[in-house]
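My main concern about presentation is that the manuscript never shows what a single data entry looks like. An entry of this sort, consisting of the sequence and the corresponding C-alpha cells, reads as follows:
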Amino acid sequence: MSDEARAAKADAKAAKARAKELRPFYKKKRWWLLAIVAVVIISTAIGSGGSGDEATSDTSKGGGTESTEAPSTGDTIGTGLGSKDAAADINSLECGTPDAIGMTYPSVSVTNNSSKASDYFITIVAESADGATKYDDAIVMITGLAPGQTMTEEGIFTNELPVGAVCKITEVQRTAS
C-alpha cells in the first residue's frame, strides 16, 4: 500500500472520529444508557412506595367524610423512602367536606414517636368503598416535627368526591429533619 493511500485512509478515519466527537450528546449511546438506568431507578423507587387498602374514614353527605379514631396500621401502609415504619405516628385522618368550589381538604394528625426531629410525607387516597376506583390523592407534608410533638396538617383533593368515597392512608414516609 502506498503512502498516499495510507494517508488518505488515516485522514478518513480521523474525519470520522471528529464527526463522531462533534455529535450532540443525545445522539451518543452512553447518554441513552444513563437515561435508561435513571428511569429504571426512579420507577423502582416510585413503584415500591406501597399501595395500601387500610380504610381510615367513613363517608358523609356531599362526598366528604367525618373524623374517625386513629387509623389501624396494618402492613398495607407503605414506608416509601423512609427507613422505618411510621404508620403508628398517625393519630387521625379526616377527609373533610367539600367547600363552595368542590375541593375537599383532608387533614391528618401526626405525633413524632421517634427520638429525633422528623419530616413526614403522607399520601392520602380517596377511592370507592370497594377500592375499585381511585378518585383523587393528596400529599400532606409535615417538616421539622420534634420528638413527642403533635401536628395536624391539611392536603387537598381537587376532584369532586362522590357520595360513598372513603379516604385511606397509603404511604407514610418519615425521614430525619
The two ends are 71 Å apart (CA to CA). The chain has two domains: 3-47, 61-176. Helices lie at 3-21, 29-47.
